[in-house]
Design brief:
Keywords: Dioxygenase, Iron, Metal-binding, Oxidoreductase, Plasmid. One of its GO terms (molecular function) is carotenoid dioxygenase activity. The protein has about 475 residues and is mainly β. The protein has 4 helices and 33 strands. The protein has a domain at about 220-270. The longest helix has 11 residues, at about 240-250. The structure holds fe (ii) ion.
């Protein structure tokens, strides 16, 4: 069976570049002062195509510095674990297991919070702090206040600036952890929430009233984990290892040293230890923001999987959740997220009636939904997404949803182009919701290079294109890290 996640623009790049002579066409807005940085998997070693899962590649960040209407540099850097530093012959520091398992460099997102640039990932893997030129400074555990890994999809409350998150980790037993990181970069509140079965909670939603949990039927798979953790020469021990793991995971909290050991035995660039689980009931949980585990109310929904939420908000007594919904996940395709059409979906939760009303907002295949960060948890009019073939395989399209008008605008970037996630940046703090630019990396299969493309968020017309002399492999998430933020 082929593995498309090792081919074309999914294939890793082998070199770290610093490019200061960049050609731009169009006009880069003067209000942009900062860096666009995007994370994604880029295996440092050769991978076994039969085994490799896209989510398991070593992290590499790609960034473009913009100031005074010009692009000053492009850089790409691996996110370095101590293991990678040792392999590369660089000076290593002792592993900080408090920050999470150092399996591979955090590969999923990059954010800026409390003055720190953070490369993020989920599942108990350590996050890392980066410097302004994308070099890794070290593992990050929020000043020791949040050990054991974080998530790639925290939400910054636009009013308080605090960072809310839901974290899953197989070592936590039957629970996930909600946390609030203050504007000082330290956890001010954590809540352990009982959730049996170790579901993969890649994302969550935040409203003004609620923390919203997606307990969906992709769960930790002990057999898969044993295959990863036990090397091939010891294959006969895998069933026993799977038994031990399944006895531990979900029943007790795995002691940190054992969890760290199991995690360390797992190899980067291999299988993902999560699979579709038809016995796991799909449900949505609402927890009041200041509530505890016993305050969560659960609502059953049809089986599906959601990697990414567009946004959520309270509407009277109901809660509106806009998400990209996959019909199922990791049933047959164990190389990446590709099990049919992912489409924009709305769940309206009616707590008083104890039910959820499901509606399809847009049939077009799409992924990587984004909203204006200033309306996170509040009513939103617009949303943006990458057009997809199936799963998260990109097309050349960038989509703009007008959820008030019920319309969708699709911008085709051109033949041979393959889009990524596009991020909205407002032109000024009080700009209207679509007054600003969208930015993202676009691969051009005809040249083998990538561009940083800036679109007018109102019209989706191209504002500027920064040509890169290299390609940026398809990856996951990025953000505009404004200078001084
Ligand atoms: Fe994600």
């Amino acid at each position: 069976m082929g593995n498309e996640y090792v081919e074309g623009n999914y294939a890793p790049v082998r070199t770290e570049h610093t490019v200061t002579e960049l050609k731009a066409t169009g006009r880069i807005p003067e209000y942009l002062d900062g860096r666009y940085v995007r994370n994604g998997p880029n295996p440092i070693a050769d991978v076994d195509p039969d085994a490799y899962h896209w989510f398991m590649g070593d992290g590499m960040v790609h960034g473009v510095r913009i100031r005074d209407g010009r692009a000053e540099w492009y850089r790409n850097r691996w996110v370095r674990t101590s293991r990678m530093r040792m392999a590369a012959g660089e000076i290593s520091r002792p592993p900080n297991h408090r920050a999470g398992v150092e399996l591979y460099g955090a590969n999923t997102n990059v954010i800026r919070h409390a003055g720190h640039d953070l490369a993020l990932v989920e599942g108990g893997i350590a996050s890392y702090e980066l410097d302004h030129e994308l070099d890794t400074m070290g593992p990050w555990d929020f000043g020791g206040t949040l050990p054991g890994g974080y998530t790639a999809h925290p939400k910054a409350d636009p009013v308080t600036g605090e960072l809310h998150a839901v974290t899953h980790y197989f070592g936590q037993g039957n629970r996930v952890r909600y946390s609030v990181i203050g504007t000082d970069g330290r956890a001010r509140r954590t809540v352990d929430i009982q959730v049996p079965g170790m579901p993969m909670m890649h994302d969550f939603s935040l409203t003004e009233k609620y923390v919203v949990l997606y307990d969906l039927p992709v769960t930790f798979d002990a057999r898969q984990a044993a295959r990863i953790a036990v090397p091939r020469p010891l294959r006969p021990l895998r069933p026993a290892a799977a038994l031990v793991l399944s006895a531990l995971v979900g029943r007790v909290r795995v002691p940190d040293p054992i969890a760290a050991m199991v995690g360390a035995r797992m190899r980067a660039n291999e299988n993902l230890p999560f699979r579709w689980n038809p016995r796991h009931q799909a449900r949505i949980g609402l927890m009041p923001r200041e509530g505890g585990s016993s305050d969560v109310r659960w609502f059953e929904v049809e089986p599906c999987y959601v990697f990414h939420t567009l946004n959520a908000h309270d509407a009277g007594d109901t809660v509106v959740l806009d998400v990209v919904r996959h019909p199922r996940m990791f049933v047959k395709d164990l190389h990446g997220p590709n099990e049919g059409t992912a489409a924009l979906h709305r769940w309206t939760v009616h707590p008083a009636a104890g039910k959820v009303v499901e509606a399809r907002l847009d049939d077009r295949p799409q992924e990587f939904p984004r909203v204006d960060d200033r309306v996170v948890g509040r009513p939103h009019r617009y949303g943006y997404a990458m057009g997809a073939l199936t799963g998260a395989i990109p097309t050349d399209a960038v989509l703009k949803h007008d959820l008030r008008a019920g319309t969708v605008t699709s911008r085709a970037l051109g033949r041979g182009k393959e889009a990524g996630e596009f991020v909205f940046v407002p032109s000024r703090p009080d700009a209207a919701e679509d007054e600003g630019v969208l930015m993202g990396f676009v691969y051009d299969a005809t040249t083998g290079h990538s561009d940083l493309v800036l679109l007018d968020a109102a019209t989706l017309e191209t504002v500027a294109t920064v040509g890169l002399p290299v390609r940026v492999p398809h990856g996951f998430h990025g953000n505009w890290l404004a200078t001084g933020s």
